[in-house]
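request received
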Amino acid sequence: MKVLVIGANGQIGKQLVTLIQESDSLKAKAMIRKQEQASYFEELGAETVLVDLEDDTKKIAEAAEDVDAIVFAAGSGPKTGPDKTMLIDLDGAVKSIEAAKQANVKRFVLISSYDTSREAIQEADSSFAPYVAAKHYADDWLRRTDLDYTIVHPGMLTNDEGTGKIEAAEKVEANKVPRDDIAQVLLACLEDPSTIGKEFQVIAGDTRVREAVASLK
Amino acid sequence: MKVLVIGANGQIGKQLVTLIQESDSLKAKAMIRKQEQASYFEELGAETVLVDLEDDTKKIAEAAEDVDAIVFAAGSGPKTGPDKTMLIDLDGAVKSIEAAKQANVKRFVLISSYDTSREAIQEADSSFAPYVAAKHYADDWLRRTDLDYTIVHPGMLTNDEGTGKIEAAEKVEANKVPRDDIAQVLLACLEDPSTIGKEFQVIAGDTRVREAVASLK
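response:
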């Protein structure tokens, strides 16, 4: 199974491509924005494709034509300008979802934000609220498709070393989670079809990733 | 018929409240953000209600409880920060639409942007694209409701004096249009139920507003 990783050059994206390349049954196609980002992925034996998320849907669909699954790991992040929040976190995600449909790729895994509910937009402070709103509308768009989707809602992302252990459920108490472990969660979702149609929050915890993901309600 | 004008303190909003108050069958309830904005509307004999579009849906729904129609004339405008583009032009519009549903207000007239198609987002320059995207998603949200909606897509808004004459159709060539004439278009939509379920572009033209609006396909 070949997986298009959108946002491959981000921290989670890089780790995910590494894990995919180490796995037995998956291989990665890294969607990157700049040619100079390619060598990292080529050294891992992964394919690369140059597409900017501000390009049109057709260009993204072409990148997805030969893959079996898409992971949307791109994120302008809450610290980028809010113009990119609109064009990457919302519109880039929606174009990726539409590209999946156009390219007949059924499986779509989306990294969202911890809580993207209507209430969470209201409660977020003013600098974070646009990001939560972007993720709210992107999640909503994906839920309304008939793609085989999984939406992952990570707690507060850290650069701590991964432990391979998490707590995952529809609702978990807000807490931190290493980016490394989120990459493992994404891999587990790709390898476990029982995650199709599910969405869940993830924080650091005591259960091995694969087990935690397999036992999601 | 009482009309809640959301964004009443904007240029189009002020003009619309004036026209509504001058009309025979309509009266306006101006939704404003600050108490000091109230006197302008009180002098016109219009009701006012203090709600911020960053408030929650419930607060907007309360403001809409005694009205028969809502006009969304708010706009951070393409020149505000893109954080407000997300929170006002997109999320504020969606909350207003949801508030209409909650308050059982069927009639909803939305001022959109000239062209909010997927292609228009792609073609817009990078400073304008987030605004087009916000309007794209707000329009889409409204179309998917069962409200009695009308979506008005004005050409490039100017502060020129209105002529009372426009050109309106599903597609018209890009051109300017005075804000005053857009206020007249909104009034005509409120007074003409044949505009329900329609959306159209408007530029300056040679046809009287009421006639142009009545003859929309």
